[in-house]
Amino acid sequence: MKVAFLGTGLMGLPMAQRLLAANIELVAYNRTPEKLAPLQAAGAEIATEPRYAIRAADCIILMLTNAAAIYSVLLSDTSWRALSGRTVIQMGTITPTESLEIRDAVVSAGGEYIEAPVLGSIPEAQAGKLILMVGAREDQFQRHLSLLQNFGPEPRLVGPVGAGASVKLALNQLIAALTTSFSLSLAFIQRQYIDVEVFMEILRESTLYAPTFDKKLSRMLDGNFANPNFPTKHLLKDTDLFINEAKAAELDVSSIKGVRQILHSAMKMSFANDDYSSVFYAIKAWEEGRWE
User: pLDDT at position 285, please?
Assistant: First the structure.
């Protein structure tokens, strides 16, 4: 099998490198060509246009920013016409509605489509320990399982196309909600002049504890949000996607709208490309009367 990897950003690059390490023949395309240099150095073929990558491959993996990027890269007229007889595996974060629409476009071109969005960040991508939520038929899942296992040891079939995208949005909503809630508690503890480590010791002993709290604690205390595994702008994008889908499902989204406001504030404070733990500073800015 020859794989075309479209989208080699923060997550796409280490995922593509996993395939090369497994001696899988790879052709890569990225809208920012400079990001392809590490893959080229490792032996990947580089495509200057997405249609060239698609034509050269049996399977196309998408790790693009959003649905608009997928339409631009995969479903432009020249690329769409090259999909016949090929499998598309969509691994980024989009809505189930978007995933179903893209599936229909791929199938109408004579291709096959499954989704396998991932949970985890750069360290998990590098180690092949991502959590994969696959939306596909059982036979499709089994045929592509060995390929997907390069990214995570136990890909899970969660239902048909749309189900994987739904689970991923639900999980990313929790990332946003947990991080902002923890940030608020941490800011409150500091405001009350309580030793943060005392608070953390109690939290770690409780059923309220989530490992992400310790992963983000040092960033928050040090104000070091550079070199992100997941930038604020991407979490805001995913939160917006969740809100839209949840509203369509007639769910009350009042609580996550507050979280979105905090993420938006972090963006206005120039943390768009920094780690999403920067919401801690957005909350502290509100506390100090600087939050708009």
Answer: 86
Residue 208 near residue 136, CB atoms below 8 Å: no
C-beta separation of 28 from 5 below 8 A: yes
What does the buried/exposed string (b/e) look like for 220-237 if buried means 16 or more CB atoms within 10 Å of the residue's CB? Answer: beeeebeebbbbbbbbbb
Strands 112-115 and 45-46: what pairing? Answer: unpaired
Strand-pairing partners, residue 159, are: 135
Task: Render pLDDT for 140-197 as a digit per residue (tens, 0 to 9).
Answer: 999 999 999 999 999 999 999 999 999 999 999 999 999 999 999 999 999 999 999 9
The whole-model pTM stands at 0.93
| pLDDT for position 97 | 97
Residue 152 Ramachandran class (φ > 0 left, ψ -120 to 50 alpha, else beta): beta
Angle at 72 between CA 235 and CA 75, to 5 degrees: 115
> From CA 172, how far away is CA 234, in angstroms rounded?
10
pLDDT at res. 290:
53
Q: Which of 141, 139, 168 is nearest to 230 (CA)?
A: 168
Q: Are 48 and 56 in contact (CB under 8 A)?
A: no
Tell me the CA distances in angstroms from 168 to 15, 72, 224, one per residue in order.
Answer: 18, 23, 27
Residues lower than pLDDT 70 in the chain: 286-292
Q: Helix (H, G, I), strand (E, B), or coil: what is residue 268?
A: helix
